[in-house]
Design a protein that fits this description.
Shape: globular
Number of strands: 2
Number of helices: 21
Helix content: over 70%
CATH topology: Amino acid/polyamine transporter I
CATH class: Mainly Alpha
Structural class: mainly alpha
CATH architecture: Up-down Bundle
Number of domains: 1
Length: 442
């Protein structure tokens, strides 16, 4: 961290808004495959009964996210370097946490390949003159070009714009639903808060829990966006002084505001998607996969807003999926060089080498995702499989968050009894739901 970057946090609310951003990049990743596919499919399969899964998923993980953000601001170190200091077995130069993150994130190639395929299908439905495979190729090239230059501000602004538009459209669709035969009641919603989990929807429910709200990889990604936004640089190196602690608390509060505003956005959108799926699609028989899935999901909008809404839905679906892939590529191209440093494949502190790998991965990952989709061609299954992986990775994230919480407590940067209570409720809830779901699944 450069001492010249140090600055005091703004005092007024309006000035604080200028320093928000990491949460909106996160929202771009969240308001994508999880909401568009996993959440809607869960509502279509289970009806209102599993609404609690979605709400719990969105609300409880933010406490873990805050601990990661706080650690990123205070330490200023790459996250995988922090992971490598967690207690537990090591394999070579890296410990279990680094290897787990590396392996499990790599398994999510299937999920993002499904999102790539979904985006290409949407574009083919809008512009059928070009086949899906050509759209896939064009999407891969466009993603690489956008990320290759490694511009944080471009990522932040593009993500915010795409999320904002689709959020408004989805909420409008939900409101319009009350003027159709598919309108639901308060009793329907309350029936979904009884914490029941039917055996036949276990796979979809676990996947939805892992992928909706702040998923495990998005919690990890948040640390990178907090640092690139400049929070850690503004706080400066820890010199043990009271002025440093005061400055750290101020910037942590801004990070809290950023995270909570983002949580409100993605919780509203996720709940809206679920209720649309439960009210319009539940009981309509087998849900298709492959190229028919996106067309089928379009009915949640055409039934509430009329046939003319199909184009708007397809446009919104594209931006939701594309923004999610866009944010994922930006994150993956930062995470993997970080992992390579801890594995000993890249020298720590070699900034030119790290930037070179960011550029290489910006082209390599989209190519891999395109090839993956061409082999599988089942976007629904591919996205849901990523949710299962995310649920397992959540266990690693919780373990790291507990260590970060203890370290921040020593620095007297925790926020009192309420913060402590929310953190442990979040950790216990995540572990309980994940363990229960895996037990029921197997």
């Amino acid at each position: 961290m450069n001492p010249k970057s140090v600055q005091e946090p703004p005092g007024s609310f309006l000035k604080k808004l200028r320093f928000l951003g990491p949460g909106f990049i996160l929202s771009a990743s969240i308001v994508g495959s999880g909401e568009l596919i996993a959440t809607t499919v869960l509502g279509a399969k289970a009806g209102f009964i599993t609404f609690w899964v979605i709400l719990v998923s969105c609300l409880i993980k933010v406490a873990i996210q805050l601990e990661f953000g706080k650690n990123a601001i205070v330490s200023g170190k790459p996250l995988m370097q922090e992971f490598n200091q967690l207690s537990g077995p090591a394999f070579g130069k890296a410990n279990w946490a680094v290897w787990s993150t590396f392996v499990l994130t790599s398994f999510k190639t299937l999920q993002i390949g499904g999102m790539m395929g979904g985006s290409a299908i949407v574009l083919n439905l809008i512009f059928p003159t070009l086949p899906i495979n050509i759209w896939l190729l064009l999407l891969g090239i466009s993603l690489s070009l956008l990320i290759y230059k490694n511009y944080y501000r471009l990522i932040e602004k593009a993500s915010t714009l795409m999320v904002f538009g689709f959020t408004l459209f989805t909420i409008a669709s939900l409101v319009a639903l009350f003027y159709t035969p598919f309108a639901f009641t308060l009793d329907d919603v309350l029936s979904g808060l009884t914490f029941k989990l039917p055996q036949e929807v276990i796979f979809v429910a676990i996947a939805a829990f892992g992928i909706t709200g702040v998923a495990s990889d998005e919690i990890i990604a948040y640390t990178y966006w907090c640092q690139e936004k400049g929070y850690a640089a503004y706080v400066g190196p820890n010199d043990g002084s009271e002025s440093w602690k005061k400055r750290a608390r101020g910037w942590i509060k801004i990070m809290y505001l950023d995270a909570f505003l983002a949580m409100i956005v993605y919780t509203l959108v996720t709940a809206a998607f679920y209720l649309l799926g439960a009210s319009v699609l539940y009981g309509q028989g087998q849900i298709p996969d492959g190229n028919d899935l996106i067309n089928y999901l379009a009915t949640i909008y055409t039934e509430s807003l009329g046939p003319g809404a199909r184009f708007s839905y397809l446009a919104g679906a594209f931006f939701a999926l594309y923004s999610s892939i866009f944010a994922s590529l930006a994150y993956w191209s930062r995470l993997y060089p970080d992992v390579f440093c801890e594995l000993g494949w890249l020298k720590r502190g070699d900034e030119p080498g790290r930037k070179r790998w960011v550029g290489i991965l910006a082209w390599a990952f989209p190519a891999i995702w395109v090839i993956t989709y061409l082999f599988v061609k089942l976007p629904g299954f591919m996205v849901l499989s990523g949710g299962i992986v995310a649920s397992v990775l959540l266990l690693v994230v919780v373990a790291a968050a507990i260590k970060f919480r203890a370290k921040n407590r020593e620095l007297r940067l925790t926020s009192g009894f309420g913060s402590e209570l929310m953190f442990w409720l979040s950790a216990v809830a995540i572990l309980s739901v994940s363990a229960y779901g895996i037990w029921k699944l197997f």
